[in-house]
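sry for the spam today, last one i promise. struct tokens for design, 495 residues
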């Protein structure tokens, strides 16, 4: 059997971390089994449809390196197209298919037309609420005779509902093992709405069958829908796929994971400067682990080691702090060349010059240990890139290290010393500056701090001598000159 799995998101907004986890686990399972992973857009609920969400979703999946085999793809203008003989699998383009299958169920007598008006259903819901009964359709139209139903259908709008059997529905889930539901407590689900659009349940089952899906891997919130699907497979006389419902995701305080953008949207993590490799690694561990609790994986390792059997039943905690830690570890391990490619848009956004790639590679190499998020990089390196007159000086630092007569005097002497240094590399600089301190009986901090602030505007950063070497002689001397000039305090930009 060739494994075929699908990721079937509804384009109702941004792709959140839970959706990404579902996509990733499907992808890993498919690749591990040398099967196919397809993307199907479930957009039949037009009231929840969000313009542009499909395009967004595709571009985020692609950014994460989750390539799919069939489905809608985007060209470089952001337009949806189809590849080869397949897709695009967009349910709103397939409504005729679902209609045909809903009618087949009607003919078989396992589904029925429901003519109840929205008002009646609302009344029913209210009464049930008052009587503390679960909100369920009372099967009012289930008992209409064939004749009555056919007659009414000529004039009145109707939905098509599934006849749930009053029996226990049992199925096997790879993660949850045997699962049982009481059919009596399950609603006669609407399959086809009065506007001719299918509901999720019908379209999902029909497509999983037609697309020959072998394993349905999705979040646990869909577990309670599965008995309805099992019944549909039975009524259609189709073999159901295997099911695996992935554990719920919780916040660190064990509350339900919020769906607010900013907290869980992959797009926002991208904007903050998480590396896709770090996100994927972290997300892979949300509900799955190896026996030896390995933490870091390449994508190839994930593919090799992933199995549904090692997915847990208990909820997984999504902890952004942990993902942040993982991100900085990844940044440290990633080559500066590759980081450059990710960092460039952040620098451009901050209006920093990105034309000197060679120089930027050196800066990235020097700062790598300190980067937690790529969005921090412009601030970390801006003083290397800005013209000397435009760097920002920290107010406190200026007060502390660039205000006294003695500090200015030291800088003046340093300037004379630095002008004479020909090999402006960190080893020579360290040797010369330390000797200068000794000779003049200056404690090193009284020299190092003013010098650092003079050339960078701030007190923190990479090692002083690395910093001087990277800035280069011309900038260092020019910046000292600016700082010791009388106009300095009037002219500077402060932060
Ligand atoms: N369209 C559903 C969703 O938004 C798909 C659930 C499933 O995979 O069956 O998640």
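last one done:
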């Amino acid at each position: 059997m060739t494994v075929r799995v699908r990721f079937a998101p509804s384009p109702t907004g941004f792709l959140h971390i839970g959706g990404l986890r579902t996509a990733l686990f499907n992808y890993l399972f498919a690749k591990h089994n040398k099967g196919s992973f397809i993307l199907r857009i479930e957009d039949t609920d037009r009231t929840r449809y969000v313009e542009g969400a499909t395009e967004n979703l595709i571009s985020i999946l692609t950014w994460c390196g989750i390539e799919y085999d069939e489905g809608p793809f985007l060209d470089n203008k952001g337009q949806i197209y189809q590849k080869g003989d397949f897709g695009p699998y967009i349910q709103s383009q397939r409504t005729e298919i679902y209609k045909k299958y809903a009618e087949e169920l009607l003919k078989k007598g396992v589904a029925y037309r429901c003519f109840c008006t929205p008002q009646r259903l609302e009344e029913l819901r209210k009464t049930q609420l008052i009587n503390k009964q679960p909100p369920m359709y009372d099967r009012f139209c289930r008992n209409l005779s064939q004749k009555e139903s056919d007659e009414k259908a000529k004039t009145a709008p109707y939905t098509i509902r599934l006849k749930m059997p009053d029996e226990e529905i049992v199925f096997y889930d790879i993660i949850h093992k045997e699962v049982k539901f009481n059919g009596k407590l399950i609603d006669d689900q609407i399959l086809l709405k009065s506007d001719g659009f299918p509901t999720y349940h019908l379209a999902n089952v029909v497509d999983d069958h037609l697309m020959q899906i072998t394993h349905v891997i999705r979040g646990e919130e869909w577990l309670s829908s599965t008995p309805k699907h099992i019944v549909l497979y039975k009524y259609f006389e189709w073999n159901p796929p295997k099911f695996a419902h992935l554990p719920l995701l919780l916040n660190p305080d064990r509350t339900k994971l919020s769906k607010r953008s900013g907290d869980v949207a992959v797009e926002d993590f991208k904007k903050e400067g998480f590396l896709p490799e770090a996100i994927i690694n972290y997300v892979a561990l949300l509900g799955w682990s190896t026996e030896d609790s390995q933490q870091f994986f390449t994508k190839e390792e994930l593919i090799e080691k992933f199995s549904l059997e090692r997915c847990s039943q208990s909820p997984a905690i999504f902890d952004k702090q942990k993902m942040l830690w993982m991100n900085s570890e990844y940044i440290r391990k990633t080559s500066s060349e590759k980081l450059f490619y990710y960092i460039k848009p952040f620098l451009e956004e901050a209006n920093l010059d990105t034309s000197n790639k060679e120089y930027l590679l050196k800066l990235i190499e020097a700062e790598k240990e300190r980067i937690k998020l790529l969005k921090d990089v412009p601030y970390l390196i801006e003083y290397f890139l800005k013209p000397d007159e435009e760097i920002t000086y920290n107010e406190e630092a200026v007060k502390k290290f660039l205000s006294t007569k003695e500090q200015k005097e030291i800088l003046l002497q340093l300037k004379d010393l630095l002008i004479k240094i020909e090999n402006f590399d960190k080893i020579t600089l360290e040797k010369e500056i330390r000797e200068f301190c000794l000779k003049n009986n200056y404690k090193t901090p009284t020299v190092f701090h003013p010098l650092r602030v003079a050339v960078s505007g701030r007190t923190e950063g990479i090692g002083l001598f690395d910093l001087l070497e990277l800035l280069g002689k011309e900038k260092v001397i020019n910046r000292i000159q600016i700082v010791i000039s009388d106009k300095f305090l009037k002219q500077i930009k402060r932060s």
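The mean pLDDT is 95. ok im logging off now
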